[in-house]
Each structure stands twice: as structure tokens, then as C-alpha cells.
Amino acid sequence: MMSTELTAKKRAALNRLKTVRGHLDGIIRMVESDAYCVEVMKQISAVQSSLERANRVMLHNHLETCFSSAVLNGDGQAAIEELIDAVKFTPALTGPQAQLNGTAVGESH
């Protein structure tokens, strides 16, 4: 999608990423001030979880916009290959616990 206007999903992902940026700054301050390692690890896990959610939102946006347009324009196979390449190293999207809309990938609704 080449529009200059962000979709609602992209805005949601952007807001989440900005929150993550602030959270990361806080974690950096924790490490610099020699905070307890376990507390730092908990905060890092929280950031990872938030990034995974942002990635799922971006996936949904891509499927609803760019991917569906490619399929409608006859470029579905290329879009599928591109998407598979993009998510193959993303366990949050492809692993056994991957969830889209609360249902694990591969499970029936």
C-alpha cells in the first residue's frame, strides 16, 4: 500500500513501537544504574512481547492491504513467497504458540 495515510492498524503498531522505544530507554537506565538482573530480564521480556504484538498487527495490516491487492492483481504467488520469507524467522508468527486473533495458527476457530 503506497498511501501516505496510515491505516488504523499501522497507527496502532506505530503507537506500540513508540511505547517500546520509551520502555527500552527505561531498561537502559535500569542497566546503567545496576538494577537487579531479574527485574531487567522481566522488562526485556515485556518489550519482546510488545514487539511481537506489533509484528502481528503489521501482518494483519499487510494481509488486508498489500497482500490482498497483490492477489487481486494476479501477483498472489509472489506475495505468498514474500510473506513466507518475511515470517519464517519470526517464532511469534510461525511457532507452535503463534496466535492470530486469539487462535493458534493451524488451529480451527
TrEMBL record:
Keywords: Copper, Cytoplasm, DNA-binding, Metal-binding, Repressor, Transcription, Transcription regulation
UniProt-listed CDD domains: TthCsoR-like_DUF156
GO biological process: negative regulation of DNA-templated transcription
Gene Ontology molecular function, alphabetical: DNA binding; metal ion binding
Annotated GO CC locations: cytoplasm
Subcellular localization: Cytoplasm
Protein family membership: Belongs to the CsoR family.
PANTHER family xref list: COPPER-SENSING TRANSCRIPTIONAL REPRESSOR CSOR, TRANSCRIPTIONAL REPRESSOR FRMR-RELATED
Assembly notes: Homodimer.
Record protein name field: Copper-sensing transcriptional repressor CsoR
Organism: Mycobacterium botniense
